[in-house]
Predict the structure.
Amino acid sequence: MQVAEVAVLRGLERTLARNPALGVLCELSPGLLRQAGTDAEVLFALLRARALRPHRVGRDGTCAPVDETGGLGAAEAAGHLNLYFHAAGWAWP
């Protein structure tokens, strides 16, 4: 769903509302989001509205909390960043 993340999340709003334990894995690509006519803040806002917090997914499969500003900065620097959004209290396997 490259560059369609925001549209997909809008389509998932009811599903996420009914299933608060669901998480969302996505590749944050700020440049591609801008080309699609949106931006990372819109993506973050949709997930924040469902109380889903960003976590950076490392190359080794680890998952660590990251704030939105830090995640966006890392994605801008690298061109993209893998993020997993989940509710507080959820543990990475």
